[in-house]
Design a protein that fits this description.
The complex is a heterodimer of chains A (204) and B (325). Chain A is mainly α and 204 residues long. Chain A has six helices and three strands. Classes of the chains: A mainly alpha (204), B alpha/beta (325).
């Protein structure tokens, strides 16, 4: 009986000890979780953006390697043929690509906010100059080339410095009111953010 | 102090003091109108013919000789005429290479366009082995960097050296932080006697259509000043303009080698040293030890500007600084 009583006491003590240990562990975990930095959604989106872009560049590199890589040539026809065959291969591989496949929504919003804020802080003349050569009346389409006879309007360099970096000859360019990401090797539009710039005829 | 005195030296040279005469055999491009590059902020209109063709070019044996053309790629008659003049000039001033200031190809860029807008107009020069070094303009597809005759070796921005000069060729159509960092490193490593940059968009311009590219200037001018760049050439504006030195650096705009934006230089621009917007033009440039000599020639084979600029870190400039101290 004594033995049983001692055993019960021991069991109760043991249970209490286990409970205390579990509580302590839980408290520790909670503390640790509280101490860990919260995942910043924008940072995560930017990391995802870079991951997708590098995936695209890897794809382009692989396709170019399988075809004939772009390299200096004195033969303009050969250069055009290499560029066209690479563009065709990218189109085929990404035939189902849609808006936002490369630019995650939070990054698209960041690009939009950055450009609009930059434009708001520019003098009206500088704003007009920044879009003076932008081709209007054309909507971007993924996998289509940038309009062949249109100028490539320059994104103002101080604005460009504020936008997320793009790798290896991918470029931001304005097209009408939109910002496209252009593959500089193939002239293909690979993704875009729509309606970033003010409407034509609106306040400059 | 050195910079200030160099600037004074430049004003002295440009301030109407006749440049030492050059043998007539060197300067027979044809009837020249003006000499010694008199300082004026009024665009040149219709230069009158002169009896003796003057020129600033010395045609020294070991100097670096090159031509400058900008905004060329139309395939039109003006481009062909300038191409012919370039070829003719070479018999008197045997330049080794040509720098292209962008907009090398307007409109389409089919293989036929490369023929019509580059290979045909400059065929005699290309056949003679003269190299072209291109930069990209806002009408150029980035893939032009793979076109071998443009000597870009697949790069949007690059450097090359000729004699005592190093050329920094930028892609002003897409000036990323990566390119700015590259420029800083390239300039910091350069030990060239002459440091020359060229790209499409002008940092300073009196053009009424485009004007100065202030964003671009904010990024690259501090580097140009820090690393003591001597000269900058740009295009984009379809006329010729020589700017008053800015922070000790000489700026030329030479984007009228095929297209022309007539009457587009602001008449009372405070930054123009010399302007020419009534006809197409190109430049011939010679670098001696301490001087940049240049002739700017119109489509009608008239000399529209000419002169000699002292290198900003020249021995003469440093000597003067020492003497004043």
């Amino acid at each position: 009986m004594k033995l049983r009583a001692r055993s019960l006491v021991t069991t109760r003590r043991f249970r209490l000890a286990i409970c205390a240990a579990v509580l302590a562990c839980s408290a520790g975990l909670l503390q640790a979780q509280a101490a860990a930095p919260k995942a910043d959604p924008q940072t995560a989106a930017l990391q995802e953006f870079q991951k997708r872009l590098h995936g695209y560049v890897e794809l382009r590199t692989k396709l170019a390697h399988d075809l004939r890589p772009l390299k200096p040539t004195a033969n303009a026809a050969e250069l055009a043929a290499r560029q066209d065959s690479l563009a065709a291969a990218i189109r085929e591989t990404r035939k189902n690509a849609r808006v936002g496949d490369l630019i995650p929504t939070p990054v698209a919003e960041l690009v939009r906010r950055t450009i609009q804020s930059d434009f708001q802080n520019r003098a009206p003349e500088a704003r007009r100059a920044a879009v003076s050569e932008v081709t209007g009346g054309i909507s971007p389409v993924i996998n289509r080339t940038y309009p062949a006879k249109a100028a490539l309007p320059t994104i103002p360099p101080l604005l460009l410095a504020k936008l997320p970096l793009l790798p290896d000859n991918l470029q931001y360019r304005f097209l009408d009111r939109h910002v496209v990401i252009l593959d500089g090797d193939t002239e293909l539009i690979i993704d875009y953010v729509a309606n970033v710039l003010p409407a034509r005829g609106g306040p400059s | 102090m050195t910079r200030v005195l160099s600037a004074i030296a430049v004003v002295f040279v440009l301030g109407g003091v006749p440049y030492p005469h050059v043998p007539a055999s060197v300067g027979q491009i044809t009837a020249f109108a003006e000499q010694g590059a008199p300082a004026t902020n009024a665009p040149a209109r219709a230069p009158a013919a002169a009896a003796t063709p003057p020129t600033a070019l010395l045609n020294e044996k070991d100097s670096v000789k090159f031509a400058v053309i900008g905004d060329t790629g139309t395939g039109g008659s003006a481009q062909k005429t300038i191409g012919k003049l370039l070829s003719d000039a070479r018999s008197r001033f045997p330049y080794e290479f040509v720098i292209m200031l962008g907009d090398n190809m307007y409109g389409g860029e089919s293989p036929a366009d490369f023929v019509n807008k580059f290979e045909t107009p400059y065929k005699p020069i290309l056949d003679a082995g003269v190299k072209f070094y291109a930069t990209l303009g806002n009408h150029d597809e980035p893939s032009q960097r793979f076109y071998k005759p443009f000597n870009m070796d697949g790069n949007r921005f690059y450097t090359f050296k000729k004699g005592d000069a190093e050329f920094f060729v930028l892609d002003s159509t897409y000036m990323t932080p990566v390119q700015v960092a590259w420029l800083k490193e390239a300039l910091s490593k350069s030990s060239a006697r002459w440091k020359i940059a060229y790209f499409h968009h002008p940092l300073y311009s009196s053009g009424e259509k485009h004007g100065s590219e202030e964003d671009l200037r904010a990024l690259v001018e501090p580097l140009f000043v820090q690393y003591k760049l001597d000269v900058v050439f740009a295009g984009h504006e379809h006329f010729y303009e020589r700017l008053k030195p800015q922070q000790g650096i000489y700026y030329f705009t030479a984007g009228g080698s095929a297209k022309l934006r007539e009457g587009n230089i602001a008449a009372k621009s405070p930054i123009t040293e010399k302007g020419f917007d009534t006809d197409n033009s190109f430049m011939l440039v010679e670098l001696t030890k301490d001087r940049l000599l240049f002739d700017t020639i119109s489509r009608k084979a008239q000399l529209v500007d000419s002169g000699a600029l002292m290198r900003r870190q020249s021995d003469a400039g440093q000597g003067q600084a020492a003497a004043v101290r």
